[in-house]
Design goal:
The structure is a single chain. With 108 residues, this protein is of the alpha/beta class. It has a single domain, classed as Glutaredoxin (3-Layer(aba) Sandwich), CATH 3.40.30.10. Helices cover 34% and strands 27% of the residues. The chain is globular.
């Protein structure tokens, strides 16, 4: 995981995501998930590309189940973009970087 990607948990989600002044892209994932592993380098690249514009974080659904249940995560990877504490975009499954970048650009 890149230095620019935040590790999110049930304990820090409220402060790091909901109360953030900048948009936050959250990757809901698990270590056993093949598509999640394939998406990880793209998440790292987006964190670097959008540094200072979008906060990027990963939430392990095996460890932080409360937040995963609260946001009705039924498939992983699921990516959610929060802006002003509200979900403005949600996509599931392996996504190409260009599509994710377009999703982020739409909300900057």
């Amino acid at each position: 995981m890149s230095d620019n990607v935040y590790e999110l948990t049930d304990g820090n989600f409220q402060d790091a995501v909901i109360q953030s002044d900048e948009p936050v892209l959250v990757d809901f994932w698990a270590p056993w998930c093949g598509p999640c592993k394939m998406l990880a380098p793209t998440i790292d690249e987006l964190a670097e590309d959008y540094k200072g514009k979008v906060r990027v974080g990963k939430l392990n659904t095996d460890v932080s189940r409360q937040i995963a249940v609260q946001h009705q995560i039924s498939a992983i990877p699921t990516l959610m973009l929060f802006k002003g504490g509200t979900v403005v975009e949600r996509v599931s499954g392996l996504q190409p970087k260009a599509q994710l970048a377009a999703l982020l650009d739409k909300h900057l």
